[in-house]
Amino acid sequence: MRTLDRFLSWYKVSIYPGINATTLAPPPMDLPSSPDPIPPRASEPRVALGEFIRLHRSRIAPQTAGLAGGGRRRTPGLRREELAHLCGVSTTWITWLEQGRPVAPSPAVLARLAQALQLAAAERTYLFDLAGRPDPAEPAPPAHAAEAVLRSVHAVRGPCYVLNQRWDVVAANPAAAELFLHWGRAGDDQPPDGRPPNLLEFLFLAPQSRRLIEDWEVRAQRLVAEFRADCARRADSAAVRQLVADLGSRSAEFARLWNLRDVREREGGERRFHHPARGRLVFEQLTLKPAVRSEYKLVMLLPVGDDLSRAAPSA
Question: pTM higher than 0.85 for the full model?
Answer without folding.
Answer: no
